[in-house]
Specification:
The complex is a heterotrimer of chains A (about 350), B (about 300) and C (about 240). Chain A is mostly helical and about 350 residues long. In chain A, about 70% of the residues lie in helices and about 0% in strands. Chain A has helices spanning about 5-10, 15-35, 40-65, 75-90, 95-115, 120-140, 165-195, 195-205, 205-210, 215-245, 255-265, 275-285, 290-310, 315-335. In chain A, α2 runs antiparallel to α7 (about 165-195), α4 crosses α10 and α8 packs across α10 (about 215-245). With about 300 residues, chain B is mainly alpha-helical. Chain B has helices spanning about 5-35, 40-60, 65-85, 100-120, 145-170, 170-180, 180-185, 190-215, 225-240, 245-265, 270-285; strands at about 135-140, 140-145. Chain B has a two-stranded antiparallel ribbon with strand order 1-2. In chain B, β1 (about 135-140) and β2 (about 140-145) form a beta hairpin. Chain B is globular, with a radius of gyration of 19 Å. In chain C, α3 (about 100-105) packs parallel to α6 and α6 runs parallel beside α7 (about 170-185). With about 240 residues, chain C is α/β, with parallel strands linked by helices. Classes of the chains: A mainly alpha (about 350), B mainly alpha (about 300), C alpha/beta (about 240). Chains A and B meet through α6, α11 and α13 of A and α4, α9 and α11 of B.
């Protein structure tokens, strides 16, 4: 019994008791939301946003933390969704197992995508993965076999909560997805602090140095892709079971634009960035829901402004600001090093010296 | 495969290759000079298509006016794009994430352009009158529309024009000089802060002209640039980023692969097959056919 | 205006990021003078030239060309004022032909119009370069590259030339050819700032010699004066 908390604590070295408490309180508040919100439209928006958050957490892991320019994540998400959806539609498999199967489909697709990117240099990776996503969408759109339903998508799929009323199903979905979000965040945080995370950041910031120290791009990139693909597949499976259908519109430039904007605005490569970015942009999107053109135009302007003027996104901004305050406080106190362990932002172009 | 299939493949190759070349060569020019992958190039095609629609259909004017206007307007738009989305980041040019950051900012510009078009012009697909109608029968059953022929000729002329511009003129040589050794080019007195926007303007103008023709083949609509962008990406990966000859060869090679695939497996599966070929190329040549890791380009 | 030197560097400070390489450096070069700056590697010779030509923005001090302060201006602007900098390693455009490289030398300073006549003069002066006119620069030997670099600098009339280690990496024969060419420039009345690691090759051309150590000039004088100073001789004249 006494061993478990300490192991847990070493997995998250920068989490103080206070931070755990704040996170716990936030999770409890998030879990209580369905008790307060009675509007079903609002519940639908909330669940959809949380599903998107799972996808964004998975993408942030491969893009921001592993630093692999994978722009095919939405295709992996869609493949997970289609995989789970087809199983739910054509087999009597438990929908919960279908959910896991979606994750497995995502992981397998991601691993297959990872192989050709292994030898590629940054920008070629983004081209290749982007092209991969476009081709997957193209194939599904033009699929005449009836398996995917082409541009119409999969017809009604069984959900996770079969016969429950809409209201109670919405709430069950909310808690389910929230649990996935919490688990995914913990998993990504733990991995990025582990030796695997250090190896990945080494490969990201100083690939030649990391390789010279024996960090194998093959092994670590495959693991990163698999983990991120699994999460994306789960997100897709959650999408198909919640919406009881999926169509090729979940992929493509428009949804990808929104997701990239969420990651960049929140702070790519950080743990909390995807959460903040997704929440913020979901609010903007909801406010502009009747003007689809204006919505994306505004998001585009946001994206441009943040990348140019606020490198590191909101999380970067906040941690810089906090650092400044704590430096200021510390100068009054003792002049010690206050910046230590204070943020989860990787400074630009930082080089990991401690490659395991 | 009959003789008419083969003639058909050759005709398709020339047409597809020319138009791919025209869109992709701009991306190569920009990558070679500025080290950025300009994701707004597809939007320039879209803008060109709408200008084609506006001049040819709405105003009912001469196609030459449409081409000239598309060139001028997308030149301006490309210049502006550089000033807004790339120039403020140039001081980070040597940082590890420069390519990623500019990939995202030009992508943001693409988002803004297509959604402004969506908000202003609506999602409808507009028919663009072909610049020229009719066609010739090349061989039994192989028809070559004049529109496609003109498009191929204009593309080839513009690519050749770009080649001559880069090889022979003062400013063209300056673009290559900047691509090959930035500091040395500045010591020669090349005003880099002006040259960068002009380069992106020039590349965008080529895409804009391509848009006038593509609009005639397909339609003008807000996401009309997505597929050309994808095709241009495939061409530049295949040819090797930053290599102009590589881009031209790759454009025709891709055109040929696609033409053959269309005959054998049908149009639907030609894109996935193309993707498979690209995968193979990249596995054996990670920097494309003629690309080099990060040496001098153009 | 007429009494200000062609180049005046006063209190110059420059470096990369947080590290200062050049500190409090003063240097005056009169019209028609060949000033040679010698110093060990890593003590700031190249940085000095880069700070003068504007490739590197100085963090303090003045650089005056004919009495005009140019600190903070871009390299392309300073180039337009008549400063020609032949950088370390020549700065040739590797994928361009020799002729294209030479033509780029006439890009600025209003020299483009007269590029053909200047080109013909360069070919006359350096037959080796003429023979390679249509070869890509990257295919040249080190000595040929150096001559193309010098030729490119001559494509337009300049107020002052900065030349970075012309002997670097060359075989002795090639070094003689290069210094012969620089000697020609001097006889033609050019104002030159040249940096080298030692005095070995500069005896014939140097009007003034400056020793640069740890980012600043520690000794200045004529070649005749400094070549009899025992400590300097030992360090910078070596075995010669």
């Amino acid at each position: 019994m006494s061993e478990r908390p300490s192991k847990f604590a070493t997995a998250f070295p920068d989490m103080t008791a206070g931070r755990w408490a704040i996170s716990g309180v936030l999770i409890v508040i998030a879990a209580l939301v369905p008790v307060v919100v009675s509007n079903e439209y609002a519940m639908t928006v909330l669940v959809t946003t949380l599903i998107l958050l799972v996808l964004n957490i998975s993408w942030n892991f491969v893009l921001g933390i592993a630093g692999v320019w994978n722009f095919g994540q939405l295709a992996i998400y869609a493949l997970g969704g289609y995989g789970a959806g087809i199983l739910m539609l054509h087999t009597s498999l438990s929908p919960w197992l279908a959910l896991l199967a979606g994750g497995v489909v995502g992981a397998v697709a991601a691993i297959l995508l990872a192989f050709p990117t292994l030898r590629l240099y940054g920008i070629y990776t983004s081209l290749l993965t982007f092209a991969f996503a476009e081709v997957i969408q193209y194939v599904i759109l033009n699929d005449g076999s009836g398996l995917t339903g082409g541009s119409f998508g999969l017809p009604i799929v069984r959900g996770l909560f079969g016969t429950a009323s809409i209201a109670s199903a919405n709430r069950s979905y909310y808690w389910t997805v929230l649990a996935v979000v919490v688990l995914a965040t913990l998993a990504v945080a733990a991995v990025s602090r582990s030796s695997l995370g250090i190896a990945l950041r080494g490969l990201r910031d100083a690939p030649a140095y990391a390789a010279a120290r024996g960090v194998s791009p093959l092994k670590f990139r495959l693991i990163a892709f698999a983990l991120s693909g699994f999460l994306a597949g789960i997100a897709g499976a959650l999408y198909v079971s919640f919406n009881q259908s999926i169509d090729p519109g979940v992929m493509g430039l428009t949804p990808m634009s929104i997701d990239v904007t969420m990651l960049v605005i929140g702070g790519m490569g950080t743990i909390t960035g995807p959460i903040i970015g997704t929440a913020l942009l979901a609010i903007v999107q909801t406010a502009l829901v009747s003007h689809p053109g204006a919505e994306l135009t505004i998001l585009g302007v946001f994206l441009l402004v943040v990348v140019v003027f606020v490198p590191g996104g909101i999380v970067g901004l906040v941690s810089r600001y906090r650092k400044r305050i704590s430096t200021w406080v510390a100068e009054d106190d003792s002049g010690g090093d206050p910046a230590e362990n204070d943020d989860d932002v990787q400074p630009e172009g930082s080089t990991e010296q401690s490659v395991a | 495969m009959s003789l008419s299939d083969i003639v058909g493949i050759l005709v398709t190759t020339v047409i597809l290759g020319s138009i791919y070349g025209l869109v992709a060569i701009g991306m190569t020019l920009i990558y070679g000079t500025l080290r950025i992958l300009d994701m707004s190039q597809g939007s320039m095609v879209m803008v060109g298509s709408f200008i084609g629609w506006g001049i040819l259909v709405v105003a009912g004017w001469n196609p030459i006016i449409a081409i000239v206007l598309a060139f001028v307007a997308t030149f301006g738009l490309g210049t502006l794009t550089q000033l807004v989305s790339v120039q403020p980041l140039m001081k980070r040019m040597n940082s590890i994430d420069f390519e990623m950051v500019t990939f995202i900012t030009t992508f943001a510009v693409a988002m803004i352009l297509s959604n402004v078009a969506l908000e202003v012009l609506g999602p409808q697909q507009r028919n663009v009158t072909p610049v020229i109608s009719g066609g010739i029968n090349v061989y039994h059953g192989v028809n070559l529309p004049y529109q496609s022929l003109t498009m191929a000729i204009v593309s080839v002329v513009m690519m050749a024009g770009l080649g001559i511009f880069l090889a022979r003129t003062r400013w063209g040589m300056a673009i290559r000089a900047v691509a090959q050794d930035l500091d040395a080019a500045r010591l020669m007195g090349v005003p880099v802060s002006k040259l960068y926007p002009l380069t992106m303007g020039l590349a965008s103008a080529l895409a804009g002209v391509a848009g006038v023709f593509l609009g005639g083949l397909y339609f003008a609509y807000p996401s009309a640039g997505d597929l050309p962008l994808l095709e241009a990406l495939i061409v530049v990966i295949f040819g090797g980023l930053g290599s102009l000859p590589g881009t031209v060869y790759a454009a025709y090679a891709i055109g040929l692969i696609q033409a053959i695939a269309e005959v054998i497996v049908g149009e639907t599966w030609s894109l996935p097959i193309l993707y498979g070929v690209i995968l193979l190329v990249l596995i054996f040549r990670p920097y494309g056919l003629l690309g080099k890791p990060s040496e001098a380009r153009l | 205006m007429s009494d200000s030197p062609r180049l005046r560097v006063a209190g110059l400070r420059a470096g990369y990021g947080d590290s200062t390489v050049i500190r409090d450096l003063n240097l005056d070069v009169g019209a028609g003078e060949v000033a040679v700056v010698v110093g060990p590697n890593g003590h700031g010779k190249t940085t000095l030239l880069r700070a003068i030509s504007g490739l590197l923005k100085p963090t303090g001090g003045q650089v005056e060309l004919d009495g005009t302060d140019v600190v903070g201006q871009s390299a392309e602007r300073i180039s337009g004022l008549g400063l020609v900098h032949v950088p370390q390693g020549d700065g040739l455009f590797p994928e361009m032909t020799v002729e294209e490289n030479l033509l780029m030398g006439a890009f600025g300073g209003g020299a483009w119009r007269s590029r053909r006549t200047e080109l013909a003069k360069i070919y006359d002066r350096f037959p080796v370069v003429a023979a390679r006119a249509h070869q890509r620069a990257r295919t040249l030997s080190g000595g040929e590259r150096r001559l193309v670099g010098l030729g490119r600098a001559l494509m337009r009339t300049s107020q002052i030339m900065l030349i970075d280690e012309p002997s670097l990496g060359l075989a002795p024969v090639a070094i003689d050819t290069v210094y012969e060419a620089i000697g020609d420039l001097k006889s033609g009345g050019a104002t030159i700032v040249l940096v080298e690691e030692n005095f070995t090759h500069v005896g014939q051309i140097a009007d003034s010699v400056h020793v640069l150590e740890t980012g600043t000039i520690v000794a200045s004088g004529s070649y005749a004066e400094l070549s009899v100073d025992p400590t300097i001789v030992q360090t910078y004249l070596g075995s010669v």
